[in-house]
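Example for tutorial group B:
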């Protein structure tokens, strides 16, 4: 019987796996038949999030030249490099373009079809446009993958879960708010992929409370403004009259930082320097384990600081007061944060040129405004300053930090992840919206359709309404009959609405304290409570503790997702080749 491989999820991750299987098969699986079953109710390539059937107003969050599905020489892996075009090369776009998601969906479909064409003869792919409901089967035997609306399971020698963003059950506080909404005829829209959310209950002219100031909010903002017929004329927004009034707040109270709007010139920081493979191996070898905040974060701070100051000293030496070699020697020898701060104060005269990660993470901490209107002015000034800095090459040390973040994330993946705080911090600094989106926020704010609530936004449900407050503006509160949770559902195993992962956990798969699925950082095999890898089940994606940064890879940055895909593909092909050999004997 021909070996059978089932991949659940045919979006970018499933497509990337297929590309790596095609790249490695000539070496590891040539001349042997194989059936690959892709299970996804959405079209292969784009999957749910990047499907072509969505609003053309929704953009990619990366420049077209920074999006690739193909490996290069910077990826540390055992398989062969198979180069291919970036999105901008494939589509003939200017590299700085922020393409719409439908175009990205077409690119992903092309990558998928190219991977199919690259598979060796005898390897056949079957797409099943259904949801996978559960997986059963013994550890050492064939698995059964049960599909929605299908009486018999798919039989699989190996199963790979390549799921993307998952729907989730509500947290307790969200459930209370939803119950209040149901009782009083209010609107409560829970965390969701915004393109799938029914926004029709949000009525024109009425206030809407929004919790979340990241990328999900940007999509919501677009669909409720331009999506309802409004338009931008220069720096002004011309309303259609169908827009609600959005009152937005979050833990930080500010939007994610703008994408950097200039290109790199000159030498890159030599990374990794203070947090690389040697440090990862030392942490993994500790018998008592390690704590992220105590043991890992100091290394992250040191690495990001090194990236920042290396760029500042090499590109903008006139703004420093010490020779680079002297600074780097003293920086490496500094025993702790106090010594490092003293060194930086002496070597970098302007505070605007110093890296303060705590201040970046909490920009409104301790700030108080006398009135709601004063805060609107203050936050608009904050956004304008961020836009100016992120588009000014004289602050290119910020781009050094961005490269440092990518390097650090690659090492953290090797550690088995670091939880949701680190992922959120990374996204806030390195994966914010395109500059034009922040300019649109400013225009909507000036038009009175977007109102900023502040940091540590608190929402309560009482007296038949929702109320929002923030310590940023003492005494201010706003009432509304609609609340939107503008964020993606948390990717946890225990709260996944999809029974597939919950049943996997019930069957022995382990989860982290934050609810992520534990996997072997080497090849993605699912781990049980004793740390044993399952011989027949693999998992890759944001719901695992080996999650990687962003949906796509920037060229020439090492690509942790590519490394994972390659390792999984090679492990799978080696297992199936051995299986086929035993069957033929």
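The residue assignment follows.
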């Amino acid at each position: 019987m021909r070996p059978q491989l089932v991949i659940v999820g045919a979006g970018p991750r499933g497509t990337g796996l297929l590309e790596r299987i095609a790249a490695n098969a000539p070496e590891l699986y040539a001349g042997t038949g194989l059936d690959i079953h892709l299970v996804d109710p959405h079209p292969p390539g784009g999957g749910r999030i990047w499907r072509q059937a969505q609003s053309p107003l929704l953009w990619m969050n990366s420049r077209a030249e920074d999006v690739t599905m193909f490996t290069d020489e910077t990826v540390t892996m055992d398989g062969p490099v198979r180069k291919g075009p970036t999105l901008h090369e494939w589509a003939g776009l200017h590299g700085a373009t922020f393409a719409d998601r439908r175009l990205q969906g077409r690119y992903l479909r092309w990558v998928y079809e190219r991977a199919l064409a690259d598979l060796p003869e005898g390897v056949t792919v079957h797409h099943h446009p259904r949801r996978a409901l559960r997986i059963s089967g013994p550890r050492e035997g064939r698995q059964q993958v049960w599909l929605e609306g299908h009486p018999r399971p798919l039989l699989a020698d190996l199963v790979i879960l390549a799921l993307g963003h998952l729907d989730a059950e509500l947290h307790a506080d969200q459930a209370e708010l939803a119950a209040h909404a149901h009782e009083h005829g209010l609107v409560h829209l829970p965390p969701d992929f915004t393109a799938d959310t029914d926004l029709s209950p949000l009525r024109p002219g009425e206030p809407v409370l929004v919790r979340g100031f990241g990328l999900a909010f940007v999509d919501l903002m677009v669909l409720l403004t331009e999506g309802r017929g409004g338009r931008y004329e220069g720096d002004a927004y011309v309303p259609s009259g169908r827009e609600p009034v959005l009152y937005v707040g979050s833990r930080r109270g500010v939007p994610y930082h703008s994408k950097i709007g200039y290109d790199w010139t000159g030498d890159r920081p030599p990374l990794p320097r203070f947090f690389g493979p040697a440090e990862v191996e030392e942490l993994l070898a500790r018998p008592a384990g390690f704590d992220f905040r105590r043991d890992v974060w100091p290394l992250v701070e040191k690495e990001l600081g090194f990236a920042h100051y290396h760029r500042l000293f090499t590109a903008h030496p006139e703004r420093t007061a010490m020779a680079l070699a002297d600074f780097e020697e003293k920086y490496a020898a500094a025993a702790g944060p106090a010594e490092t701060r003293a060194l930086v104060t002496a070597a970098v005269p302007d505070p605007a040129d110093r890296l303060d990660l705590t201040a970046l993470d909490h920009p409104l901490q301790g700030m108080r405004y006398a009135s709601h209107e004063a805060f609107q002015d203050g936050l608009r000034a904050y956004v304008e300053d961020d836009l100016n800095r992120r588009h000014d090459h004289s602050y290119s040390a910020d781009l050094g930090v961005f490269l440092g973040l990518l390097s650090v994330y690659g090492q953290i993946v090797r550690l088995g992840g670091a939880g949701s705080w680190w992922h959120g911090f990374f996204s806030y600094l390195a994966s914010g919206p395109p500059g034009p989106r922040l300019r649109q926020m400013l225009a909507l704010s000036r038009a009175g359709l977007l109102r900023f609530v502040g940091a540590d936004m608190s929402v309560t449900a009482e007296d038949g309404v929702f109320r929002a407050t923030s310590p940023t503006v003492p005494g201010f509160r706003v009432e509304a009959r609609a609340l939107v949770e503008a964020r993606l559902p948390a990717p946890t195993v225990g709260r996944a609405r999809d029974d597939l992962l919950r049943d996997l956990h019930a069957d022995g798969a382990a989860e982290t304290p934050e609810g992520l699925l534990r996997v072997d950082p080497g090849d993605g095999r699912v781990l049980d409570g004793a740390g044993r890898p399952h011989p027949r089940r693999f998992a890759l994606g944001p719901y695992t503790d080996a999650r990687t940064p962003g949906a796509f890879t920037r060229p020439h940055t090492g690509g942790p997702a590519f490394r994972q895909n390659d390792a999984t593909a090679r492990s799978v092909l080696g297992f199936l080749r051995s299986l086929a050999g035993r069957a033929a004997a």
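DSSP finds 16 helices and 19 strands in the chain. Compare this with the pattern of hydrophobic and polar residues in the output above.
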